Protein: Small ribosomal subunit biogenesis GTPase RsgA
Amino acid sequence: MAEGKIVKALSGFYYVLSEGTVTQCRGRGNFRKNKITPLVGDHVEFQADNVTDGYILKVFERKNELVRPPIANVDQAILVFSASEPDFSTTLLDRFLVLIESKEIDPLICITKMDLLTEEEMGRIHRYADDYRRMGYEVLTTSSKTEQGVKELAPYLRDKISVFAGQSGVGKSSLLNALDPELDLKTAMISSHLGRGKHTTRHVELIHVDGGLVADTPGFSSLDFTELDESDLPLCFPEMVTASEACKFRGCLHVNEPKCAVKEKVEAGDIPAYRYDHYLSFHQEIKERKPRY
Structure:
């Protein structure tokens, strides 16, 4: 018996990495009965007589799991957004951040194509970057030259399981390909009339890149808040979590409640108004969501 990590799942087989060797395994017969589906990223116990014929006996508890892409135990999400072509969107960034915070995954914001901006536009993006840094997020700003992005990103990958996500058509696949040319992910041109790219996803696989493991498929194809309740949302805005300690009511939702410290911070300019606007809009979306049966 040995322990390892699933690095690939394909056609009912699981490929488990243990001490530098990958073993092809099947799941135990009772997994299906017990509704256990092993995922890429799972830490498992397995038994094998040789590298092509093993069985997964146990899936250890996960710290998180994503549905699309189906992957578990993710340490960080690298959110790739462009400063231009397509334009930088704080609304979309905040949507990603909420989903990532809800899964307790560390986000790393990477804003690319800074060299395509005028001085005035660059100032605006730097102000946004500073806002997010004040909220406690790590933010990288890089040029459209993929090599620079790679150089900046590489140290963050070490010893972690990372997924790439973010705006479509910003070059996530190009960045991944540059990090490891053998990946050869299918890159897609921006479909300009839609303002977003098309990517083709196959199976999920974790690939060794710069001392860490990276999922070879851009993540989060679904951006709906289907798993979030109203009370979860404030916990996904770190600057509100800190401010809410001074709210009059415990469990304050920062919408209509009196003596709300979050609203006071927004009025004072300590929390950016656009962040609070996005919060209200997401809150409304969750409130109006049809109940699931």
